[in-house]
Amino acid sequence: MKKLRFAVLAALLCPLVALAQFKISGKVTGTNGNTLSGAGVKLKNKGFTAGTNTNGVYEFTNLPAGNYTVVVSYLGYATQEKNVIISTNATADFTLDQLSFVADEVVVSATRVAKNAAFTYKNLSKADLDKTNQGQDLPYLLNQTPSVVVTSDAGAGIGYTGIRIRGSDATRINVTLNGIPLNDAESQGSFFINLPDLASSVDNIQIQRGVGTSTNGAGAFGASLNIQTTTRRDSAYAELNNTYGSFDTWRNTVSAGTGLINNKFSFDARLSRIKSDGYVDRASSNLKSFFVTGAYYGKNDILRANVFSGTEKTYQAWNGIDREMMETNRRHNDFTYDNQTDNYQQDHYQLFYTRNLGKQLVANAALHYTYGRGYYEEFKENRTLADYKIEPVVIGGTTITKSDLVRRLWLDNDFYGATYSLAYTPSNKLNFTLGGAYNRYEGRHFDEVIWAQFANYNGSGSIRHIYDDNDAFKGDFNIFGRVNYQLDKLNIYADLQYRNVFYSFYGKVDATSSAQQNARLAFFNPKFGLTYSLTDRSNVYASVAVGNKEPNRRDFTDSNTGTRPKHENLTDIEFGYRTQQGDFNIGANGFAMLYKDQLINTGKLNEVGGQTRQNVPDSYRIGLELDARWQIVKNFSWTATATLSQSKIKNFTEYVYDDAEGREGEFITFNYNNTNIAYSPRFIGSNEFAYTYKNAGIALISKYVGEQNLDNTGGKDENGKIVRVLDAFFINDVRFTYNVKTLGVKNIGLNFLVNNVFNVRYAANGGAGAYLSDGYFGRYEYFYPQATRNFLLSLNLKF
Q1: Which of 15, 86, 395, 419 could bridge to 90 as Cys pair (CB 3.0-4.6 Å)?
Q2: Cα torsion angle, 332, 337, 339, 343, sign
Q3: Taking a C-beta distance cutoff of 8 angstroms, is the pair 498, 479 a contact?
Q4: Beta pairing, strands 636-657 & 667-676
Q5: Beta pairing, strands 490-508 & 462-487
């Protein structure tokens, strides 16, 4: 009877034993005995991450009994992993070997923040990107990160796409590829369509929200995307990725690498093709790209060369549709001309050299060159010939001054320069970085009429008439220095940058004359931060950073010497709390972005009748962000982000001119106070529930974006309801994955993604404006509809 009672008791206790929680802890040192503070520690394939404290100690708690693989990495040291079986608390210490070669990560370290920095950031690994990469543009792979809103002209994430972070569009987001600027020097936007399937050649991305650290290129007024492409892989590999989806979408990618040859050389290559008809009528995309890289690894240096290129042809879907059509014919496209297309190619060449000048000193240098060229072609109806510098045509005594025509707007540009950094680390508690760059842009803008209706009277519609031809030049120099000092539990960060911009362009001098003009701007951008470690796994931080940003090309060319806008200034205050508790990680961040002279559209025309953005004295964004992940049980995780914010312009004046007479005619004005900044939702949230079982996984991925104003007026109707808005939307996707090894194939992966599974009809972008014609005043709005339920099915083979 006693044996029976014991057996019953044991059976009852078994589930409790299985649910018992244990911990793995240990210390990480180098072979010379020095403790490695800030080393990355993770439990392989579990989603648990941690870091070592100032004493080199890490800890994972609340772990169920089982078999775990602990992986430890530290810049400049060989990554090491250990298998740990726990049925009680376990200790796993690590002694890392210093690499006999320099790590690729050193190349981008000058423009990135460290683990405990006093700035707001998100790191995405190659595994994070591969999980979501099925050929959609890079912004869509960032959609589940805090404060992000993405949109697609074609409606399905392929072709022209856009991204906003904290309400700031791509012209205010600094993007670098291996520390080299990607933003266009004149428009300041980043066009990922020019590098299709770039994500397949990306090793990792760091997103810094706000001003962030000093970097190269355009000023960061919303965020920075610091992208590192393919890094060293020791083993040879080959990979095939094929995707088919809705709207006849295809992605074919082949990539391969040699691994490390003779412990010194490696070569990697990728070739991609993406085609899609798009959700919107005729909004097709035909995209091709390649990426090739080779590296030499010496004992104290790295030499790496990257060559990559992208070419795109997309049918335009830029006009959007009105609210009524959103309900009746949401896939409508205004354009019907057969070749209403955008055509562009961009080639990139990058050369990097990194050298250890001693145990405490590392130097980086890079040369780069980008060649871009292309045009967009469009049909124009009943246009005035004089606007295109074409003389009137006299036929049968009738003078023809207007004609239907087809024009091409061309851009041919060269962008080249050098970047450098020097990192000095005299001790584990102190490091200095000196960095900077000089970049030069040369652009030729020329526009031509290739066909006109009136020319048919002469027997041919082809005329190839160039009516506008001008050049632009931009030089961009910056230098920055930063210091990190660890004082017991307090980390002190300081960063000072000087940037000088010279821009030469062809534009209006006054209402009657144009000439080549020059502008020079100099900026000082200081940054300061403090991080205090509450425990080994938790810290609080605060920082203040100043950013300055020059006007873009249109601001210069659409104004004249007397009406040119001033540069923008931003003071960014960030503060927050971070903790990593093994199975539970959370970051909470508050921000206040205080703008001076922010440039916005007010409708005002300058002395020559061109519409240009105007400076508003005071505007701001304030908010709270949350980024959390909880491994609830071994096979089930919950990831969530949330942003609650308020974005305001304190006061500005809107101008509306009579269409027929422009600046010389009548106009009306409206004064506004404390209005919402356009495209700035008060709430953004994302959520992912993920469950895995053996080789299979399923995830429910959700995104909520609150109501957004389409202009800066905050207009209301007679009932007090705010009008000219993008309605809030809540979208859910479902992702199924299955991975298996068989028949000598390292991995066969199936990924089935159902986007917008509940078939929501919504728009993620749009615009609004006002008009005055013969005394009649009105307003209008337009929208870019996004795809209803659609799917992408991918097959991945790794050899």
Answers
A1: 86
A2: negative
A3: yes
A4: antiparallel
A5: antiparallel
Residues 6+ apart with CB under 8 A from 714: 672, 675, 676, 722
**Which residues are within 8 A (CB) of 591 and not within 5 positions of it... i.e. 6 or more apart?**
120, 166, 209, 210, 572, 573, 574, 575, 621, 622, 623, 624, 625
Q: How far apart are CA 198 and CA 272, in angstroms?
A: 9
d(CA 170, CA 684): 18
AA identity, residue 126: K
User: Which residue, 402, 493, 408, is CA-closest to 454?
Assistant: 402
Quote the CA–CA distance of 50 and 45 in Å, as a whole number: 14
Amino acid at 168: S
Q: Which of 226, 213, 215 shows the shortest CA–CA distance to 483? A: 213
Q: Quick one: 386 exposed, middle or buried, by C-beta within 10 A (0-12, 13-18, 19+)?
A: exposed
Handedness of CA 28, 31, 34, 38 (dihedral sign): negative
Q: According to the model, what pLDDT value does residue 66 have?
A: 83
Q: What's the rounded Cα separation, in Å, for the pair 414 and 581?
A: 49
Q: How far apart are the C-alpha atoms of 168 and 599, rounded to whole Å? A: 12
- For residue 320, the Cα-to-chain-centroid distance in whole angstroms is 23
Name 57's Cβ contacts closer than 8 Å, sequence gap at least 6.
25, 26, 27, 28, 536
Residues 6 or more apart whose Cβ sits within 8 Å of residue 456: none
Name beta bridge partners: 269: 256, 292
Confidence of residue 105 (pLDDT cuts 50, 70, 90): confident
| Integer angstrom CA distances of residue 366 from 352, 544, 643 | 4, 30, 37
Q: What is the pTM of this model?
A: 0.87
Whether the per-residue pLDDT at 602 is higher than 80: the answer is yes
Residue type, 152: S
Q: Say whether pLDDT at 11 is over 50.
A: no
In this predicted structure, the answer to whether residue 14 has a pLDDT above a threshold of 50 is no
* Domain architecture of the chain: domains with CATH: 18-226 (2.60.40.10), 227-798 (2.40.170.20)
In this structure, what token pair is assigned to residue 174?
Answer: 């600094």
How far is it, in rounded angstroms, from Cα 304 to Cα 354? 9
For the segment 600-606, the average pLDDT, to the nearest whole number, is 81
Q: Name the strand (E) or helix (H) holding 8.
A: helix 2-18
Vertex 346 angle, CA 341 and 351, to 5°: 170
Q: Which residues contact 35 (CB under 8 A, 6 or more apart)?
A: 27, 28, 29, 52, 54, 55, 56, 428
DSSP 294-340: EEEE-SSEEEEEEEEEEEEEEE---S-B-HHHHHH-TT--S---TT-
Residue 218's pLDDT is 87
Q: Which residues contact 434 (CB under 8 A, 6 or more apart)?
A: 421, 422, 424, 479, 480, 481
Instruction: Identify the DSSP state of 47.
Output: T
Two tokens at 177? 């590829």
CA distance 301 to 364: 10
Task: Let me know: does 527 contact 548? Beta carbons within 8 Å.
Answer: no
Q: Which residues pair with 668 in a beta bridge?
A: 656
Alpha carbon distance 798, 788 (integer Å): 32
How far from the centroid of its chain's Cα atoms is residue 737's Cα?
26
What residue has token string 């050389």?
A: 265
Which pLDDT score is estimated for 208? 95
Binned at pLDDT 50, 70 and 90, residue 742 comes out as confident
CA distance 527 to 498: 12
β pairing state of 776-785 and 48-51: unpaired
Would you state the pLDDT for residue 667? 83
H helices, E strands: number in the chain: 5, 44
Q: What kind and span of H or E run contains 660?
A: none
Distance CA 302, CA 331 (A): 51
SS3 sequence of 89-157: CEECCEEECECCCCCHHHHCHHHCCCCCCCCEEEEEEHHHHHHHCCCCCHHHHCCCCCCEEEEECCCCC
